[in-house]
Write a structure and sequence with these properties.
Layout lengths: L2 H32 L20 E5 L5 H23 L12 E5 L7 H5 L4 H4 L7 E3 L6 H15 L3 E7 H14 L7 E7 L13 H20 L6
Parallel strand pairs: 1-2, 1-4, 2-3, 4-5
Helix pairs in contact: 1-7, 5-6, 6-7
Amino acid sequence: MTTPERRRRKLSFWFVFTGLAGVLVGILSLGYLSAGLIYDYEDTVSLEQLPDVDVIVCLAGGKGRINSAAELWYRYYEQILGSRVSSNADADTPLSKTPILYLSGLGHKADWNSVAKQINPQVAAVLPKHDVVLESFSGNTDENAQWFAKALRDHGWKKVLLITSTYHMKRARFILEHVLKPYGPIEVETWSVRQDPFAPHKWQKDLQGIQVTLTEFFKWVMYRVFWEPGAP
């Protein structure tokens, strides 16, 4: 190979390399400027006025989600117990009226003991095992929704309260609502677990916040553009 040919090849390589690098930088820059959109939503649940739901479904992949879901269940427990006491009604035990607590994506080694260690002891003391579903087969958000859909079909649940992290909620709700469409009108309420640095105006100030938010943003875009729910 002659010297001019080597130079042409090197020049072509650098043109391709710089072009691809420019595209990559452009995509990352656009993602960085737009990633905050995943926080652009409002939860439907207020802790002061809890909605009537059949099941609390917690996507358990993030830190603190399990305990937050259990403590939300405990708020239902306190509210129902308080209403029974104040009305002096001789009704069935209030626990029979609380939502089922469905924990999704726990991992194959999960059992009640390992889950209970992640829950406030005060809550774990009154949370009956038969009101808790431990789902340990799903490994991502799509599978979380598919496995939950099977349980919803079997139990006839119609009102769902979804719990996950703030950065994950927009995509998780989108996936869950689409997977549940074949089962008729299902109400999906949401309550987000809020963690630093995963919040509007905070994620850009932390390396982990940037990494997680950008990753979730690109997943959100891919799901909106290309994803279709599988067969239930």
